[in-house]
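Page 42, continued from yesterday. The earlier attempt failed because a stray header line got pasted into the input along with the sequence. Redoing it now with the clean sequence only.
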Amino acid sequence: MYSPLPLLSRGLLEDELKKGKRWFVRQTYTRGMTANLRAAIMIRSYPAEEEAAARTHLEAIEKDKHAFLYDATLQEHLDRLTIAARQPTGYRVFYAARKGVEWKPPDHYQQKMRQYIRTHHPAWIPQKAGEKIEIGLFEEFGQFFLKFTYDGEDDTIPFDLIEKF
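This time it went through. C-alpha cells are written below.
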C-alpha cells in the first residue's frame, strides 16, 4: 500500500518544535505497515495554540490502541517523541506533514487520478494556456483525502477511493 508520508526523523521533529509545535497526536497508520513490523505509527503535530484541535483529533481516534497525545513541554513526552524519531526496531513512525497541492504522486497514482477525473468530471478539460486541474492531498484525523479543483468547482474524495481506479 502506498504511503504519501515521510518518516519522522530527529531533524524533522526538531524543525517542528522550532516552529512552535507543542501537541503531537500518535495513532496507528495502516498504510505504513509491512510484514516485518510490530506497528506502523503516524504522528501529527499541532501548534501550542491548537490544543483544542489536538484533543479533538485524539477523541476522534479514541478506540485506536496507539492513540496518545504528547505535550512537548513535558520532558518525558519529548523523550518519547525523540525515541520515535529514531525509528525504533520493529516500528515505523511516519509524520503527517501537510502536503496540499505541492504533493507529487507516483506515476501510477497520477494515471488513476486522470481516470477518476475522466469518469466523474468529463467536462473538466483544461486548455494548454488556461487553468489547470489542481489536485491536493490532505489529511484529517489520520484519514487522507484528495481534493480536485478546476474552474471554480471542487471535488473531495477519500484517498482510498482512487486506489480502486
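Notes: The chain has a mean pLDDT of 91.
Reminder to self: strip header lines before submitting.
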